[in-house]
Every structure is written in structure tokens, then in C-alpha cells.
Design a protein that fits this description.
Chain lengths: 458, 458
């Protein structure tokens, strides 16, 4: 390992420079006009996998965005690790709030700013650079490695399920490692064992066939913007509880032992609120903040638009109003079932004078798994070696549909090693990655590969 | 009058062509980038006034957009008529819904399409062309005429009040005629004796300093878009009543005699709904549709925006959410007082976890006046001569702040002669003006000038 660690140290700056090149590619998966950049990013990544020393790399086309696969299988008898990440990124608006442009990565202080730095190109590179360090120093890896880096994570991984079913042999592995989550806090390296699922809906209210003059029709025309507001307000109770009937029917209660474990984590609510720029934390009564984020479902309005939104005034009754609404789900909620409950409730509360359309945008299942396999002990050690701090077990409020799917398919331990921080603005302007954590992550992952081999021998 | 009527008939097409030229100027008063076009439109109108034969015309600058004044005062002993209109227009979005571009006027069937055709350039031209017909045939007008055509009607006529106070001598008149309203229906020429007032507000909810990941923060962060929806939904009861406390304190009840007069008007609710593209009419219980539009206040959301509104999905908790909310007022509600009540209520219902800003955008008083002055009889006759149909007395749900102001200043009869139709999309895409009504309006206004002179002699 000494040569590997020296290689990582002496290539520290080059590793940053190479990540910068990857972040420059505007691989926004939700944006049709960026489809070309998404494909370009997949091809770029394939080439970098071969540069790192993988023996094979391939771009698999799907009906949506491509999936990049890479492998090194030269360690017979050793376990095979499947590493998952994604190269697609979130949209960048509001663009004017970025200090430097999202696809012109810039280092300020100890952070690299740019869309995709932490979510998830930086975390993909952590693994790729750990693998490179092994391969360039010894010519081999301690274990077998497969990479699967997809291009639709930010839009619900729609075509990943079919790919996993079709390529089961190619993806066979003993352990799955995913890096697409944050650490609990700075200096608290974390292993995540649970994710929330998601269901993302659009809700559109239509009144007249066109915008109407609010003087000539105010008092007789249903106002789609007001109706939308009224309907959205009925989706949640003041208590923070979601009001969609039967929404909680399948929600698994948090076990007392887990509540106690979560309560012991080094988590500071006021500091967390301050970090997020929030005046205070709010939410469902009777649960701690970590429980609400990790183990309770939530409902959020992600976007709203209706009528005149320019500067100044326009006195209209808008013809239409649109909301994007997503729900984070916990075991054993099912996204398709929740989507149906949502749609039924919306139709039940639609008032006269308007018509309503509900569209299912994407969904993914929640995931929760035990962490008693010996590989988790290896991961704890590897993180402690990289960060010089003890690691903890956490859950995560976000959603990675891949994890539930691969867990169902492979029935193997999955571990989420997060190298981001909660305030690094994934999904927001000025997304960034702490470059010290990038470096520590690479060291940790190099140790992880080494430790997993030892495990097999032991 | 025969020569005048022949002149109108033989110049019918030219009158349309000249209106088309005026509509081409994109004089959107609410849009800072159109400020140059607004000034250009004022200068253009001044030149057209002189072309028509007015002896004097002037563009008065204000701290906002200019006011165009014109006069012909060559009839000593005769009454002076002050004609009011506006040359500014509404914004044009959603632009993609226009069949032909808003500032490239196009004739389809009997209609001229374009922004400002009916609201209000066409109606200004009705008067200007009637005046021209008199002046070009006899070299004089039957009465004295003053024009005041403003450029801020669509944004609340902010600077008109000061102008009226400063120029009282210039504006002295015996009668005020305003054409900026629709007829009750096609073939029902109408004289309007009441307008609703308006107060236009912006309401902005702020949560975090930036958009947050809805997975990492869903369940603990107040969602400004949801909070905005909850607050908007509290502004109105399900009954259609506005819920702002004390909102109705000064609302004058509709007199029984007026209710009966309104009930006799030829107004067909289902036809009106169909014309507006509405599935049905809704609103406050216990009032007819005309009463709700004309004599009851209303509250409408004019625009909404928050978070991600592009195609596809983005899983954020938006940092901010903005609504534009306007209320139409009836006598004796006061816009400033209503704005204060609104702002107080909004702050009273603001939940924890967010901050709220309320901004007053513009306001104007409601207006209601008797119509027993003999000039109204002259106007009825003039409209009947132009349209070959009996005219009726109506109110209007829209707002023209000028009217209440000039009525207070001059204490003279004000009459609103409307030449538009309720479905001509003022404030919406595909605004249009029926060219038969344009022609009939010009004839009616030529008769009006003639009849008002006879009134003075009688």
C-alpha cells in the first residue's frame, strides 16, 4: 500500500485537474438540448476508465441516456466489487446565482465549484483514481472491480432496471459500493445503509382556454393559480403530516434500537440549519430532525408556475397553473402505489370550474439493509485510515433508485460511502466539493480495495 | 353631418390602415426594455393628432411614461369634451399562443389582431378619426375637444394624478368621455357608469438562502412554494368570499333598483362562459354573474413562480416563491387601506421557518356615478345611430384609475363609451378588435360631438 499511497500523494493536483475536465461537460440529463453533452460525457468517461488501467470499458446505449461500464477482473479467487455512480447532473438554474459558471469549474479556498463536482462526478473519480493508483503502481488490483456509471440518476434511472435485468452476468458481484451521498458532517466519514425512495409528479390545473382579463372576469372565473394553491395546501396538514389518504399505510416504524443509535450520532440541529441557510428546522411532530430526513416520508413542492411572472404587473386570470410535487418515501412505501393515491386524492379535491391533469414523472423505491456483513468492518477501517477520524453508520434522505434495484437483483451487501458534505449544494447553485475530502476519499477507497482482499483470505 | 358620414365611409379602409401602424409600436408600459417604444408611441400619437387637424398637441414627460395632450378649442360658447384613452399596452406573454405576432397586426375575418387593438389604441382612434372627419369636411368641430392619452394605464396610472392636479386649467372640461371598456355583448352598444378599483400586490416567501436538495432536507426545511400555496389558499374562502379581515367593511351594497336594472340587461351566462372559454362560471354565493363582476370585489392570483419550472424534474426545495395577487375593489373600498389590510393579514398567517415580503405594486380607486345628466341621452342617441341598435347602461369589472381621479377633480359627468367586445382578449394572447365596431364607433362619436353642441343650444 505504501507505493499506492505515495502515488496518490504525488498525483494529488493532477487528480483535481482531471476532475475539472470532467465537470466541464454539461451533462444535464433532464434537458433535451443537453442530450449531446450527456453522450459526450459517457464517451469521455469510458476513455478515462481505459486511461486508469481498466482492461475493458464500454458505453451501453439505452432508450434514454447511455450507461458506462468498465472492468478489471485480473484477481481470480478474490471478491468482485461493483462500483456505482452517475455522470449526469442536475439543471443549473437559477443561473444568475452562481458565483462562477456551473460548467467552468473554479477552485476557491479548499473547494472546487461546479455542477457535478460532488453530485456525482467527484465521487466517481474518487473510485477511479483509487483504482488508477493501484494499477499504475503494482499493475494489478487487490480485488476484481466493475464500474457502472449511469446517465439518468437525476431523472429517476428509468432505463437502469432493464439494463440490470438484461446484463445480470456482466454485473455479478460480491459487494456493491456506491458513492453518491454526503457524510453526516465535516470530519465524520459515514457509511450509509438506508435511502428514501421518491415519486415525482406534475399537477396542472386548467381553467379557460386562455388568460382572461382579471377585471372583466374576476368574480366569475375559477382562477387556476388559486385553485392550484388551494389543492397544494390540502396535500399537507399544518402538523407536517402528508394528507394524501392511505399515504402512511405501509410506512415502517423506526425501531427503538435504531432511534437510540441515531440519537447518538454527532448531529447538531442548529448548526445543520445554519449550514443550510435555514432560519429554523420545521416538520412532523414527534420525530427528531434526522428521523424526519432519513426515516419518515416527506412531500415537497419543487416548482410552481402560472400566469405572469415578469417584472411589473399584468392583470390576468391565468389559463393554467403547474406544480411539480415530489414525495420522498420510506420502506415499505411503493412509488407506483403512492402515485396512484396522489392522483386519486388530487381528483377528489378538484373544485368546479377547472380541469386537472396529473402526470407521473419518475419514481424509485426506498432501500434499507442490515450492515452486519464483515465488509462493513473493512469499510470502517478504510475510512478511518483516509480521514483519521472514526466512521459512523447513517441513513440518507435522498434517493438512488439503483440501490434498491441492484440489492433486489444481486442480494449482496451494498454500502454507500459518501464523500460529499451536506452543505455542498448538490442540486443548487454553487455546487462544490471539498478537495481535502476528495483526496481522503481516494486514500480510503485504495485501502478499501486492499482490505476487501484481506477479507477474502481471512 | 352628411358630409362627415360620407368622409368616414370613404376613408373606412384608410382608418384601419392607420390603426395598424399605431398597433405596430410595442408600447408595453410594464417592461423596462420597451421604455423607448413607449416614448416613440407617444410622439407618434402627437403627430397623428396634428394630422387629424387638432390645433395643438404636446407630449408631457412624467417621472414615468409620457402623457399625450391635444386640443381643438375653436367653438366658443360650446361645451368642452375631454376625451381620455391610453396608448400603452399589456405584456404579450405567453408569446407562443399568438396566432400572428402581437406587434404585426393582421386582419382575419372581421377582426384586427394585435396587442393594443382593442385595449386601447383602437378606441383612441375611434375618437381621433371622428374628430378628423369633422375637421376635414367642415374645418371645425361642433364642440371644443381635448385629448389626454396616457402611457401608464396598464400599470396603475401612477403619474396621472399629479399631472391632473398640476394641469387643472388645461384639463378643464364640461364632460369627460372615456373609451377603454367593452360593450355588454356584440350588438349591444353600452354606456358604462361604474368601474371597479384595483390594488395589485406582490407576495414573496423566502426560506433558505438557496435552493436545497429535497432529499437531504425534505422533512425539516420549510418549503416556500408550499407555504405560499398555504397562504394564498387562506386569502379566499371556499364560498368565493375574500378572507382578508375587514375587507368588506366599506363595500357598498347593491341597491335593489340597480339589481333590477342589471337583471333586465341582455346577458346570457352560458354564452358568456363559452365566449371566455370557461367550463362554467363560479363565484360568490348570492349574486348574479354581472353583480359579481361589476359590483362585488374580487381577489385573483395573477402569477406564481417558484423553484424549477423547466421541462423534466429537479428535486429541490426552492429558496423563494413569488405570487402576484390583485384585488378588484368596489365603492367605497380604498386601495391603500385594502393594501394595508392585506399586508397585515399576510404577516398574521406567516408560519415559522420562512420570511415574507409584501410589496404594493399599484392601486386605483373604484368609481360609480349617476347617469342622469342630459349628455347621457345624447350619447344613447349617438350610439343608436352608429350601431342601429338601442344602447344600454352598464358597469364594468375592470379598472381605469383615471376616471375616479378626473371625476374627483372636475366634478363633471363622465361617460364610458365602450367599443370593444368582452371576448376580444384584452390582456391575453390574440387580442383583437372587431372592425365593424371600429367603424360604427367612429360614426357614433361623430354624432356625439354633433349632439353635444345641440345640447348646449337647447
Amino acid at each position: 500500500m505504501d507505493a499506492v499511497l505515495r502515488y496518490i500523494e504525488s498525483n494529488r493536483q493532477r487528480y483535481v485537474d482531471e476532475l475539472i475536465e470532467a465537470v466541464k461537460i454539461p451533462s444535464i440529463s433532464s434537458s433535451p438540448e443537453h442530450a449531446g453533452a450527456v453522450v459526450a460525457c459517457a464517451e469521455y468517461l469510458k476513455a478515462r476508465m481505459l486511461d486508469a488501467g481498466l482492461t475493458q470499458a464500454e458505453v451501453f446505449l439505452t432508450p434514454g441516456h447511455p450507461i458506462v461500464y468498465g472492468e478489471w477482473l485480473g484477481a481470480p479467487g478474490q471478491p468482485t466489487v461493483l462500483i456505482y455512480g452517475h455522470y449526469d447532473v442536475q439543471p443549473v438554474d437559477p443561473l444568475n446565482e452562481w458565483v462562477t459558471p456551473p460548467f467552468e469549474p473554479a477552485v476557491r479556498g479548499r473547494d472546487l465549484y461546479g455542477r457535478g463536482t460532488v453530485d456525482d462526478k467527484g465521487q466517481v473519480y474518487v473510485h477511479l483514481k483509487a483504482v488508477e493508483a493501484h494499477l499504475k503502481t503494482s499493475g494489478s488490483l487487490p480485488v476484481n472491480v466493475k464500474f457502472i456509471i449511469e446517465g439518468e440518476e437525476e431523472i429517476g434511472s428509468e432505463h437502469l432496471g432493464n439494463f440490470l435485468s438484461a446484463k445480470q452476468d456482466l454485473l455479478r458481484a460480491d459487494l456493491v459500493v456506491i458513492s453518491d451521498t454526503p457524510m453526516l458532517a465535516s470530519d465524520v466519514p459515514s457509511i450509509c445503509y438506508g435511502l428514501r425512495g421518491i415519486v415525482y409528479m406534475e399537477l396542472e390545473v386548467a381553467g379557460s382556454t386562455q388568460d382572461l382579463h382579471s377585471g372583466s372576469f374576476g368574480g366569475v372565473a375559477a382562477n387556476p393559480a388559486m385553485v392550484l394553491a388551494q389543492m397544494l395546501s390540502q396535500l399537507k396538514f399544518g402538523s407536517g403530516h402528508v394528507a394524501v389518504p392511505n399515504f402512511y399505510d405501509r410506512v415502517r416504524l423506526i425501531e427503538e434500537s435504531e432511534r437510540q443509535a441515531l440519537a447518538r450520532l454527532p448531529f447538531d440541529e442548529p448548526a445543520f440549519a445554519a449550514l443550510a441557510g435555514l432560519p429554523q428546522l420545521v416538520g412532523e411532530y414527534g420525530y427528531t430532525a434526522l428521523e424526519r430526513i432519513w426515516a419518515r416520508p416527506s412531500l415537497d413542492v419543487n416548482g410552481l408556475v402560472s400566469g405572469f411572472i415578469g417584472e411589473g404587473s399584468k392583470t390576468i386570470i391565468p389559463a393554467r397553473a403547474l406544480a411539480k410535487v415530489s414525495m420522498r418515501l420510506v420502506p415499505d412505501q411503493d412509488p407506483d402505489e403512492i402515485a396512484r393515491l396522489f392522483e386519486k386524492f388530487v381528483h377528489d379535491i378538484t373544485p368546479p370550474g377547472v380541469t386537472v391533469a396529473v402526470r407521473y414523472v419518475h419514481g424509485g423505491k426506498p432501500w434499507l439493509a442490515p450492515y452486519d456483513h464483515p465488509a462493513f468492518r473493512v469499510a470502517l477501517d478504510a475510512l478511518e485510515k483516509g480521514f483519521h477520524r472514526p466512521a459512523v453508520f447513517i441513513r440518507e434522505g435522498g434517493s438512488i433508485p439503483f440501490v434498491a434495484t441492484i440489492y433486489e437483483v444481486l442480494q449482496r451487501p451494498c454500502m454507500l460511502l459518501g464523500f460529499g458534505l451536506p452543505d455542498e449544494n448538490s442540486h443548487a447553485p454553487n455546487e462544490r466539493l471539498n478537495l481535502d475530502n476528495y483526496h481522503r476519499g481516494i486514500i480510503s477507497c485504495a485501502h478499501l480495495l486492499d482490505g476487501l482482499a484481506a477479507l477474502s483470505e481471512g
